[in-house]
Amino acid sequence: MKFEESKVLQHLPKQFFANLVAKVNAKAATGADVINLGQGNPDQPTPDFIVKAMQKATADPADHKYSLFRGMPRLKQAAADFYKREYGVDLDPEKEVAILGGSKIGLVELPFALLNPGDTMLLPDPGYPDYLSGVALAQVKLELMSLSADNHYLPDYQQLDPKVVEQAKLMYLNYPHNPTGAVATPEFYQDTVKFAKAHHIGVVQDFAYGAIGFDGKRPVSFLQTPGAKDVGIETYTLSKSYNMAGWRIGFAVGNADMIEAINLIQDHLFVSVFPAIQDAAIAALNSDQSTVKTLVARYQQRHDDFYAAARKIGWEPYPSGGTFYAWMPVPKGYTSEEFADLLLDKCAVAVAPGTGFGKSGEGFVRIGLLIDEPRFTEACERIGKLGLFK
Questions:
Q1: What residues does the Aminotransferase class I/classII large domain cover (predicted)?
Q2: Buried b vs exposed e over 237-252: b needs ≥16 C-beta within 10 Å?
Q3: What's the CA gap between 147 and 312, in Å, rounded?
Q4: Using an 8 Å Cβ cutoff, are 363 and 329 in contact?
Q5: pLDDT for 176-218, tens place per residue?
Q6: CA 375, 377, 383, 389 torsion: positive or negative?
Q7: 365 and 312 belong to one structural domain
Q8: Quick one: 222 and 236 in the same domain?
């Protein structure tokens, strides 16, 4: 017997990163020394104290039972304490915190939880490709907010089609921004709250890279904005801050109605997260954050090293303020994908074409700052030999 996938699954977007990985693996299979700058997977180990907390928890028989459907109250409290300590934001741990098996799950399931088929949601372009999965699965209408360097990769709400704005019920933001590294300002978030209230649009701010800011400037949380909890939520993952990408743990905080919707849909999809992982997450959030500071300093050094190496060959980066990415312009005469293919073919350097993040990513490639010197210099020297930058 043959079983066809449902029409909903047939409309899912193709996995951009799977195609990128396949190209890199094919090049490496030829024996080439590939310098992979296209990845977004944290390369450092999870801090020892978090691993030890997990090891201790896995030996506890109580952690082998079903988890509470909506997560451990102690983890919700740790998330609330973290936001109070780090951002000065007060949260009710029971009503304003939802535990997620990684923030991706929350971001993909939210359209199910808050919208009906045919409703309209706004997404940034360029943006994280997996946002599109939630659009397809929930069968909602997508409208894109084109972002550009001219406006620091922030949406200009005045330029949006008024008809689209009136139809929209949900909007995603992501700062610090993947793929560009742009950061939001308090003034932008104030405008966002006003815009959302005026048009009754729910806001979801993806704060995946919230810990990673450059030049001593810490990224701003959306929830630090007066009125933010009236209009939206923020999602936070432990993947980037604590190198826990494979652990799959995160949380959402903010508007009580939106948090309840997340909890309700997860009641029917999951039995929360393995309790031992939740125990480890509590240890991470309640720590003195010294490992996070060390990690940010490492990314700052990589940022500085790559920028210096790129500038030596005349390749000027976009001035990113956060994340562990660099957003690099494509030379004239090439599309983003053509340039990425050229670098892999001729230089054995892998980068992510900007169009993998949306139409407005054309003209750029994304560089992952997930290796150390001297590989940045070597990669840029290989690229420099092509003579494309002056």
A1: 33-383
A2: bbbbbbbbbebbbbbb
A3: 28
A4: yes
A5: 999 999 999 999 999 999 999 999 999 999 999 999 999 999 9
A6: positive
A7: yes
A8: yes
